[in-house]
Amino acid sequence: MKILIQGGRVIDPATGRDELGDVAIATGRIVAMGRVPADFSPDRQIDARGHVVAPGLVDLAARLREPGHEHGGMLESELGAAAAGGVTSLVCLPDTDPPLDEPGLVEMLKFRARKLSRARLFPLGALTRGLAGAVLTEMVELTEAGCVGFGQAEVPVADTQLLLRALQYASTHGYTVWLRPQDAALGRGVAASGAVATRLGLSGVPVAAETIALHTIFELVRATGARVHLCRLSSAAGVEIVRRAKADGLPVTADVSINSLHLTDVDIGYFNPAMRLTPPLRQGRDRDALRAGLADGTIDALVSDHTPVSVDAKTLPFGEAEPGGTGLELLLSLALKWGRDCGLSLPATLARVTCEPVKVLGDALGSLSSSAGRLVEGGVADLCVLDPDAEWRVMPEQLKSQGKHTPFGFADSGMLLPGQVQATLVAGTVAYQQQAG
Amino acid sequence: MLSRRNPQLNAHGELIHLLSVEGLPKAVLTQILDTAGTFLSVNDREVKKVPLLRGKSIFNLFFENSTRTRTTFEIAAKRLSADVINLDIARSSTAKGESLLDTIANLSAMHADMFVVRHSESGAPYLIAQHCAPHVHVINAGDGRHAHPTQGLLDMYTIRHFKQDFANLRVAIVGDIVHSRVARSDIHALSTLGVAEIRAVGPKTLVPGDLREMGVHVFHDMKEGVRDCDVIIMLRLQNERMSGGMLPSASEFFKSYGLTEDKLSLARPDCIVMHPGPINRGVEIDSQVADGRHSVILPQVTFGIAVRMAVMSIIAGNEA
């Protein structure tokens, strides 16, 4: 199948390329950009005039809920949501049921995702067996099965001795360990400590839950040389500690979720369970620091933290509601909104959801690492055609994801979001195209 | 942004549910206190009933056990001639795995007019108010650490009864503020009614500094905290907090924060001492003080019935 994407503003954040032109695709790869050879005869043409042609988005945190949480979401619905959101590669978390702690599960997921031929799926393996924090998993086997790194999702490792050994072992083989910095005991609350939690009578998670965990992780990184990716920073103090660690040359990267980037604890309002999220929403100064940290590169990537949750699990009192919200279809728009609010250029904005997350994945992507999240002649044709100026209201029931709960639903947030995906191509195949009209 | 509107009030600003004192205008609080005043005399009559809620069904839904609070609501409802159904949910349907909202839907189908809800999770009555039929009214009888609005209102009634006016009062709330829904409701009510100063007194484990953002002066020294106060509200120390990570022991708490004659002498001579009950003698309050001339703990109980009658009759008369 040969496809010609015509007349779009072609943006490659990795090189800063930003010019009007065509993109020619054949056998799953980009064969030409800008001026396409006259003898290129496409089977299909996509009119991108007035639109942007960008690399497909790379999301470092999305839960697809399989296996075990199918009432929340299924591979098919969630990969469909990814394609509709312009996401062509995503990292899924190991907190499935059973957790991704053995190679068979990982192979099965990869196989099923490939058959659906939507977004590319890169599983994170469990760092410890059953995520129980006691026994290391077979990381070599899991890597051969397709894992791109190892983590504990939301389950903190309470035993620092074990965490040290996990980092030693992972670094022996050059694997990246993905950790959400949260102290096990201090992290037990349901909202961020502060005036809102105190007023509403919700148990609080203090900032120290994050900063203590960060300090511990950094000491262990210094001791082991392990490469660590820090998931979902949530506090201003946390951003500052990461900034210093990076300045010291520690091999660490970090991400932030769309939720923490745009919302604060005040949005909990009258106990709105859609705002029950992990990490919990913090205060305005934390949000501002996260935005600045993402802009200056302290935080490498913006992630959807996509977590489809069933209606039954969400319509509960705030503290009992399952944390998380759907996000794959909102990642692009919330990236654009952040970029616009911060006065960033479109290429600089898109970098945080394309080439920068690919750098976090690094060699774990294998042959894809040189062209995923980028537009490269000869590279894979994973791309997204988008209208950056179109504004829309999030109507949760219209989302493709099985999870309809999002803090950004128009009724809750009142937000108009910029940016609509026109088409998504994965390996040169159209995985999503917006219906005309 | 519908969900941002205070869910307790209808479009005309009238009270349709009582979920929290927070966000209620002064006029609504005053209306409740004034109405309670008219009901107080009913309690002294030989026939202690008025026919205001005749034919209405009020369900007491106590997801968390509390005989005392449930009884006061039951008495209030019966004195308004309503039919009262007590459901001990903690031991029935939810124990069989029924979800909160399914329970509510089932009871709504039995044509309930009002739910009086106690739940261990902060905010649970909001969820119920959001999902029940439009004609059903919800009264929060205590949710987690969040609110206990009828207790807050009866405390205000008591203060007004003994002090007439709120304007120049200095009020100290002493004890376990962090876990107390009563404290939160009192703080909101006192701020709205415009007292001169609200103090929160207790150790740092029980009195978080964030309270300052609710307009409260935080004291960790009991003597300083009660000095020159017109009203002292002692909170109940829950058994599970008496020893552990929050406090070493009940006796050490009493030593630092228990209200004794000695400490009370630092307050204003006409200071009143309140307590939401049940009291722990010798833990938060000395028997001499609990039974002494400053104590208004028993009048609080009496006023509680009238205040709950007032709330029920007012919200039953307002439409969503």
Structure explained in plain terms:
Chain A is of the alpha/beta class. Chain A has helices spanning 75-84, 103-116, 139-145, 160-172, 195-200, 208-224, 236-247, 258-262, 284-296, 311-314, 331-341, 346-351, 355-361, 410-413, and strands spanning 2-12, 17-26, 29-34, 44-47, 52-55, 57-62, 87-92, 120-123, 125-126, 150-151, 176-179, 191-192, 204-205, 227-230, 252-257, 301-303, 383-392, 417-426, 429-433. In chain A, strands 1, 2, 3, 4, 5, 17, 18 and 19 form an 8-stranded mixed beta sheet that branches. In chain A, β7 (87-92), α2 and β8 (120-123) form a beta-alpha-beta unit. In chain A, α2 runs parallel beside α3, α4 crosses α6 and α6 (208-224) runs parallel beside α7. Chain B is 36% helix and 14% strand. Chain B is built from 11 helices and 9 strands. Chain B has helices at 26-40, 67-79, 100-109, 124-131, 149-163, 181-193, 222-226, 250-257, 261-264, 287-290, 297-316, and strands spanning 57-62, 83-87, 114-119, 137-143, 170-174, 197-201, 217-219, 231-234, 272-274. In chain B, β3, α4 and β4 (137-143) form a beta-alpha-beta unit. The longest helix of chain B is centred in the C-terminal third of the chain and has 20 residues, at 297-316. Chain B is globular. The A-B interface holds A 193-195, 197-203, 269-273, 312, 315-320, 411-414 and B 1-4, 6-7, 22, 99-101, 119, 121-124, 126-127, 131, 143-147, 178, 181, 184, 208, 210-211, 213-214.
The low-confidence runs of chain A, each spanning 5 or more residues with pLDDT under 50, are none
Task: Give the strand line-up of the largest sheet of chain B.
Answer: 7-6-5-8-9
The N- and C-terminal alpha carbons of chain B lie at a distance of 18 Å
Task: Please summarize the sheet with the most strands of chain A.
Answer: 8 strands, mixed
Chain pair sharing the greatest interface: A-B, 26 and 31 residues
Principal-axes geometry of chain A comes out as globular
Give the count of helical stretches of chain B: 11
The pLDDT mean of chain B sits at 93
Beta-strand percentage of chain A? 15-25%
Average pLDDT of chain A, rounded to a whole number, is 96
Oligomer: heterodimer
Give helix and strand order of chain B, one letter per element, not per position: HEHEHEHEHEHEEHEHHEHH
Q: Approximately how much helix is present in the residues of chain B?
A: 25-40%
